[in-house]
Amino acid sequence: MTEEKKDIYFKIFRFNPEVDQHPFYDDFKISVEKGVTILRAINYIKDHVDSTLTYRFYCQAGICGSCSMRVNGVSKLACTTQVWDELPNCKETDVITIEPMNNFEIIRDMVVEYTPVISKLEKYISWVTPKIKQQDLGKKEHIISEAEFKVYDAATDCILCGACYSECSMMTSSREYISPLGLLKAYRMVKDSRDTRSNDRMKVLNEDHGMWDCTHCYRCVEACVKKIPIMDAIQGVRNEAFLRGMKNSEGYRHAYAFTQDIKSVGRLKESTIAVRTKGIFGAISMLPFALKMLGRNRMPKVFVHTIPGIKHVKRIFQKIK
Amino acid sequence: MQPYDIIIVGAGGGGMYAAMEALQTNPKLKIAVVSKVYPTRSHTSAAQGGVNAALANRHKDDTIDLHIFDTIKGSDYLADQDAATILCEMAPYVVRELENLGAPFSRLEDGTIAQRPFGGAQKYRCCYCADRTGHTILTTLFEQCLRQGVHFLSEYYLLSLEHDGQKAQGVVVMNMQTGKIEALPARSVILATGGYAKMYWQKSSNAAGSTGDGIAAALRAGLAVEDMEFVQFHPTGLRKSGLLISEGARGEGGYLVNNKGERFMKTYAPEKMELGPRDLVSRSIEIEINEGRGFDSDAGQYMHLDLRHLGADLILERLPQIRMLAIDFEGVDPIKEPIPIRPTAHYSMGGIDANNDGATAIQGIYAVGECSCISVHGANRLGGNSLLDILVFGKLAGRHAAQLAPSLNPGAISTSAVEKSLKEIEGYSHHDRTERYGELRDELGKTLGANAGIYRTKKKLEKGVEDIMAIKERFKNVRVNDSSAVFNTNLFQVLELKNMIALAETVARGALAREESRGSHSREDFPVRDDEKWHKHSIFHMNEKGDITLSTKPVTMGKYPLQARTY
User: Can you tell me the distance from the alpha carbon of B52 to that of B382, in angstroms, rounded to the nearest whole number?
Assistant: First the structure.
């Protein structure tokens, strides 16, 4: 039985800072069999058509995380993505677009500068600092319950491919943001009973660009090549902050004000949320923004009505409690 | 430039364990880990099944001695018994240390590290993190290196290894992002650059970069390499891609089935069945296929690995990654259908000749892990012993180098070493050159697969040597088409090919010389083990003209005498 074959066009991002002033796209037409991955297709192009095409790849089995790139606009691993599966995602019929990941500096073509990811792992103490003294390492294993293991098991799947980093909407507005994979790692470490530096880590997470900046767009969860529930981890570190009574942050105050509003009237009292989150002085700094909203007649109401179903909302809160 | 105390080439498990241990031993040392990929990309990440250590968590009667014996028997008595003893004695220690440092090992109900059965082992001894043990161990080591502030030079390519005939001088590398060639002087160099099984290219489970760079550099620098003819074929590569399905799949109870629906391993290893050692299972599959009991496909003949009887829950919990591999690369869900598999080149037992500290004949130069031959795996490595090898000898070499380095005073790397590399690299882009990289690479893979594969004969191997020599000649005319200094992957591919060709010659010549069958090396014309003539290691040198010379060295024996090897 021979496999189905088809002519596919690859529209590939090109940029070599040595010679190109601006990025551009190259088009390649190749005949592709069903069952071929994106990586094998671009390897074919590199071997037979244009050997200057530049991208990273290594294990070719979805475990090393080297070959992440945007395929039809979405960050994924080239080695585990089937060409056939991408055809429905093509804007133009049978034209697959290949581009570097977002939110990274481009070194050449699909190769991006990866060092910021590692700097973030360092900043947020993304390792276990063992309880056991150096000279006693290796003598005895910890007893870890199935229940504890399950909490961080999924997070240890992360291969640092950077797909979440590339898709994150918060990263796009600030490259200083910890990033989804940073939060995932932080959560994995915070929940590990073998680690001793949770307090320090939580302190850094509580600062600007840390755990409170996520906007819950869920794009990281959609992009994760290992299907890790990253948002659970992000909520997880925030919960940890509540449990530890870390009230001294905008993020905490924002979340607290939010919950109080829903509990009391069933909706957000938007006009005062800035004051309650940022304090009087912080809120004053937002005045120009408020005036702009006023100018466009988008100023939220000062007095809000309680929603009709508030009884039920209160019951939900009771139940959670 | 002030010399580094230690330069470690390779950021896999062996290299990072060495870095960590060296800094623990002496925190004042100036150490760098040089790697052609970011550390977590290293091929250690692809190890799936686990790491052996006689913790006796599952089988209370397991002992270090049993582990030693299994390793030596598995090696077909070619392992050096003192080295195998160190490997197994240190195993519980390194596994526990990794656990202490945060490695997320799967757990038994009592909360201790879980263990599963593995090929060629008498007891349940293989510690695992689901089926991504290598990935989690590599990640843990990277995290610990960050904790200790290890200095990484990521995306630097090794061009040459430098010494003055007695002592290490350092390495010459290329910064891949800028194309700049740099001499990095060092009091000691630890090579942890991985194996060479990618030379089989289309028929290999290895990462694209498992091209034996460190071994080839050592060979060119005049060091001895050992037992190169021993290349392990893993029985269960995926039919189309050669990617690996872990031995863990059989460890958990998977069946190997031929086109008659029979579990054919009953013919070859009636006792251990699917859990025979890898060399034996791979040979059995070849025989079944040759005798017409394989399944047919465009991608060649194959067998079935059937996991369906294990049930969805077990597959999802303990073998999630291999399930995804089967779905992504074969379109087969192992919960519902058998996985199509065939043997694939997987691991190279041969490597740089090194002693039990990883030290070579040149003071200050070390080799650990798959690029070394210490030798703990002999003619066939047991599943679960490769992660163990990198951990144990990474640690020992790191410690030894840290203790020795301050006393070494290396001479400077000569400017001619840098110029030589520069000239070679400039030469590749000369417009007279016509040979294509991809073509030579594919031809090398094909001839190795056909002539130096699982079953070998004099005739095939002579053809193999002839082909390789022809490819070596054609390589002199290979062209790098990319002229950019920035991340020139075309250039690195060509440099890797040069290494594969050099090592392929040692594989084929070693296999041709060894007129016996031992472990992974099976000669149809010499089907039995010949202890009288061949119970010895093969040693390879490269002379100044670039020719390979062969000699031998005795095997270090211990308390286990030579025995017939049956399972």
Answer: 9
